[in-house]
Specification:
Number of strands of chain A: 17
Number of helices of chain B: 14
Radius of gyration of chain A: 22 Å
Order of helices and strands of chain B: HHHHHEEHHHHHHHHH
Largest interface: A-B, 65 and 39 residues
Number of domains of chain B: 2
CATH class of the largest domain in chain A: Alpha Beta
CATH architecture of the largest domain in chain A: 3-Layer(aba) Sandwich
Number of strands of chain B: 2
Number of helices of chain A: 14
Oligomer: heterodimer
Shape of chain A: globular
Strand order of the largest sheet of chain B: 1-2
Structural class of chain A: alpha/beta
Distance between the termini of chain A: 47 Å
Helix content of chain A: 25-40%
Strand content of chain A: 15-25%
Chain lengths: ~450, ~325
């Protein structure tokens, strides 16, 4: 079975919600929709306070080439347009809407009927994707249309669908593949059409056997008129869902330092993004809902939820039984790369994929001891770096040396700190050093 | 609620667990040495472990004025490994001196675990070997459940026979008497069964090959160490001594006997694999292993000491930073 070549670790996968179907979180009384749910420029607001909006209506237009549109997820009245502080203390420009009824914009199909045929031209598909505010839903939130228009010198031949879901606890991609398999296949065909190619590989980690079998059973139906879609099981190893790791695992191609992944001829899209593309193109439905896994070892009723964007995360957590006693850490995202939060009163948006609640005993970091130079971090690093050295260089502000040792290649997956027997905060230092080195490199290039 | 950057989860590993695994892996060899060397082995090991722990405690408390680190068990490992490298009839005060040197100079002088460039137990052993050559080279004979300590009956070790053979002058080996001498000395080198079970003279922990190999398998299964260092040392020794043996079967023993005698197994499994003093990358570890293998054979064959393992490991410990500097891991972007 395929997997990426260098490093990697095996955290316990804790996929306790894999068998729990999606539940819809009721529409709240008020939603707070951030205008910067993506990498790049925030959307520019195109409605005013007091306006009546319908669900699916555009409230922000892309603020630049690398940017994405933002839509209202509910129908109601715009109450405020303001800066709102999220769970990490960062202010975001937001539109706050008071909910009245649940009326969708005309032309949006909210039914579950499968629409297979797509007669649109590639250009029209891209326009629809742009208009629907689609961004990479795997966590990076990079605007999808930009990824689908690679530079001229990149000859694209393969679409890779990232259905790895290698973070422990997270299961919403798994559920999506089981519940919306056909929609995903149509989405893949649409993306292939937009890219003007025929070859797609869906990479799924082997702990989702039922999803692999389900998608494989659909292949004969969709591998028509030249389409060559393939579902490839991957050997369990974190961080397989990293873009570079996944391209290497599936195609053997390597993204060079500083190059964009498209330079290898592969475009990677998350499986949730593929589904969003299907909804946008076939149903005219922009991203107004997101999937969220709420999980944790002691959560009463953990599960997978569908929320309207702007709903506080606490609404889904309440449906899962609330924060259990003895919880020591709330994580937005998975335990390997997620961010810890102080509270849950922060709006669900395109960047949020899970709320994981860890027990107090798991939440506390172990006592930091001397580096014993065991080399486990070097063995674990999927980028082939030397985390023990990079963290020391960062700590001592040796940025030139850190640059020579390719600190900028770090993907911040956390394998080094995860595997350190001395509990050293390796990634904390490397992250600091990487930021410094990247800004030094940037200012040098600007000269 | 706790707030921290990612990752929020940790592999269930700690320094203490690594050290505990090493201690468990040393257990079979320890039992074997108690069987063959009796009371002497018990006394030497207890004194060595206790003094290593006490010295580390005292040094961290009164000299370095730091939190004590004895709970990470590394001092226990150093103590036990030091004892394994000593003859079981060594007077107690020499053992204490060795422990003081191992912990004080070998480890704490550099800032404690992880900062030491040389394997502390070997630093202690070589210090004793140079300071007390007579006591350090009289080995008791293996007598099951021996109750004698200082007055244990002593005898030659396989390595001393091998040294005797290697030093036979090539010219004199042509004479009939010398040939007969060589043949009879070769006879005295124990057979594989004795070497495997450990029924031979030597330092208390190095004799029983089977027990050491069980420990090796345990370390591999628990992923405490990887195969790279031990296998590259053993393979180098075998490859190097094979032509020597083929050219001169009278004065050189065969490669397997080389591997099963002396401290080669103990050294390559437990001493050369010490985290702090061995290279970080697998490729570097193989270079390091080859270096140890070559130096060991050179000392055994042409040097003046019968055993060269300790020196070989210490020399390669010294070269480790250089290996780390030049041998980088394979980077993803250069695959």
């Amino acid at each position: 079975m395929k997997t990426f070549r260098l490093g990697g670790v095996h955290p316990h996968d804790n996929k306790i919600t894999a068998a729990v179907p999606f539940r819809k979180v009721p529409v709240p009384e008020e939603v707070t929709i951030p205008l910067d749910q993506h990498i790049g420029a925030p959307a520019t607001v195109c409605i005013a306070v007091g306006d009546k909006v319908k669900a699916g209506q555009t409230i922000g237009n892309p603020g630049g080439f690398v940017s994405a549109a933002v839509h209202s997820s509910v129908s109601g009245t715009v109450k405020r347009i303001d800066r709102v502080r999220d769970a990490w203390g960062v202010y975001h420009p937001c539109v706050i809407i008071t909910v009245e009824g649940d009326e969708w914009l005309e032309g949006i199909d909210t039914s579950d009927t499968l629409v297979k045929e797509c007669a649109l031209e590639p250009k029209e598909i891209l326009d629809k994707i742009t208009a629907s505010g689609i961004v990479g839903l795997g966590g990076a939130c990079f605007p999808t249309q930009v990824k689908l228009m690679p530079p001229k010198d990149c000859k694209i031949d393969t679409l890779i669908v990232n259905a790895v879901e290698c973070e422990p606890y997270l299961t919403h991609n798994h559920r999506l593949m089981l519940e919306k398999g056909d929609e995903i296949m149509v989405g893949v065909q649409i993306l292939l059409k937009a890219l003007g190619i025929k070859k797609a590989i869906i990479g799924v980690e082997n702990n989702k056997r039922d999803a692999i079998e389900h998608l494989q059973s659909l292949l004969p139906t969709y591998n028509i008129s030249g389409y060559d879609i393939e579902v490839t099981p991957l050997k369990l190893k974190y961080p397989q869902g990293g873009e570079k790791q996944l391209i290497q695992a599936l195609t053997g191609r390597v993204v060079r330092s500083g190059a964009i992944p498209a330079a290898t001829g592969a475009v990677v899209q998350n499986v949730a993004t593929v589904f969003a593309v299907y909804e946008a193109v076939q149903k005219n439905k922009p991203i107004t809902e997101i999937a969220l896994t709420v999980s944790g070892k002691r959560v009463a009723n953990p599960g997978n939820f569908i929320l309207r964007i702007g709903t506080p995360l606490s609404a889904a957590v309440d449906m899962a039984g609330g924060i259990p006693d003895g919880t020591g850490k709330l994580i937005c995202g998975g335990p390997m790369m997620g961010r810890s939060m102080v509270h849950l009163n922060t709006p669900a948006n395109k960047r949020t994929s899970a709320v994981v609640m860890l027990d107090e005993s798991e939440a506390v970091r172990g006592k930091v001891e001397n580096c014993i130079r065991c080399g486990k971090c070097v063995e674990a690093c999927p980028m082939g770096l030397e985390p023990y050295l990079l963290s020391k260089m960062s700590k001592m502000e040796m940025y030139d040396e850190a640059e020579q040792h390719q600190i900028f290649d770090c993907i911040e997956c956390g394998c080094c700190a995860f595997s350190c027997p001395s509990n050293r905060p390796l990634l904390d230092y490397v992250r600091l050093g990487k930021a410094q080195v990247m800004s030094i490199m940037k200012s040098r290039n600007n000269k | 609620m706790y707030i921290s950057p990612s990752p929020h989860t940790h592999a269930n590993v700690s320094v203490q667990k690594c050290m505990r695994n090493v201690l468990i892996a040393l257990l079979p060899a320890y039992i074997a040495s108690l069987y063959y060397f009796g009371i002497g082995a018990l006394v030497v090991s207890l004194i060595s472990v206790a003094s290593c722990v006490i010295f580390e405690f005292l040094i961290t408390k009164y000299l370095l004025k730091r939190e004590n680190t004895i709970s990470d068990l590394s001092a226990v490992v150093t103590g036990l490994l030091l004892a394994f490298n000593l003859p079981s009839n060594l007077p107690w005060w020499i053992v204490v001196l060795g422990a003081l040197f191992a912990i004080g100079i070998g480890k704490m002088a550099f800032g404690g675990l992880g900062n030491n460039p040389f394997n502390p137990a070997l630093v202690g052993r070589v210090f004793l070997l140079i300071s007390f050559p007579a006591q350090m080279t009289t080995w008791p004979r293996p007598i099951p459940f021996n109750t004698a300590y200082l007055d244990a009956e002593t005898g030659a070790t396989p390595l001393s026979y091998m040294k005797e053979l290697a030093q036979l002058d090539v010219d004199t080996t042509s004479s009939a008497t010398a040939l007969r001498n060589a043949a009879s000395t070769l006879e005295s080198v124990p057979d594989y069964l004795h070497l495997l079970t450990g029924n031979i003279g030597g330092s208390m922990g190095e004799v029983c090959a089977v027990a050491l190999i069980i420990g090796f398998i345990y370390l591999l299964c628990t992923k405490t160490i990887t195969w790279h260092i031990p296998v590259s040392i053993l393979a180098t020794v075998a490859l190097f001594t094979w032509p020597l043996h083929a050219c001169n079967p009278l004065t050189m023993v065969d490669p397997l006997t080389q591997i099963l005698t002396g401290g080669l197994l103990l050294g390559s499994i437990f001493m050369a694999t010490d985290y702090a003093t061995s290279p970080m990358t697998h490729c570097g570890q193989i270079i390091y292993g080859i270096g140890i293998g070559v130096i060991t054979v050179v000392i055994r064959t042409w040097g003046s000491y019968p055993e060269g393992m300790s020196f070989a490991i210490l020399i390669m410990n010294g070269i480790t930073p250089l290996i780390n500097h030049y041998v980088r891991p394979k980077q993803f972007s250069k695959l």
